[in-house]
Amino acid sequence: MIRTVLIDYDGTLHDSDSVLRDSLDGILGLRGDELYRIYLHEIHRGIVHKYYPERHDDLLFHCSLIYSYLRRPFEAPTATLFCRRFMEAEDRSWRDPIYFDDVLPALEMMKRGGLRLYLSTGRDAERKAEALERYAGKKLFEGVFSEPSIGHLKSKPEYYLAVLKSSGSKAEETVSIGDSPMTDIGPAKIIGIKTIWVNRRREPQPNQEELKPNYEVSGLLEAARLIQAINERLNIWPPENSF
Is residue 124 predicted with pLDDT exceeding 90? Predict the structure, then answer.
């Protein structure tokens, strides 16, 4: 049965992609969607997550890798513009967040089912949770976890081991939901947590077996229904002792 749900924020609850695409438009002579694709898939996930996880939040480093990817000489003013636009977009996401339409129905469905919801993200977890709960007008999360509070990168199994210990959860009764195979799926799956990949972008499944999710869905409401179906098959919905 599933009792505890760990939910990612950016790309899962919050539509960060659209905000960043618009902000990066025109930089390096590229469309915003193309530059963001290079940043996210080729650089952030393809290089930084794998080889430089400690520089996960170093925007200037990401920008230098983008120049290398494009085989262009590094230009400090343009790199600074990229970083400034990126940070301005993140700031706007706090002031005027864009949540996916299925977020509140999905979270409310899981709450009604007695599931314990935790926000599980890389950084700024408290701020992100506060923004979403303010938008919802109610408390949604039992707690929040971030890399600074946990002391481990989310791309590492140690992050999820610490989350289980802190929340008093068992791996076999926990599911991790998110949009990133590198941070939401692989490191959680390796320690026995069930995983649901919210593939809103309709990306192909990862080639590496360890990054493949237990389940794949196209949205958060589908994930909520899947959890309900799993527990109903065990004749446990809501989960026992959930109230």
Answer: no
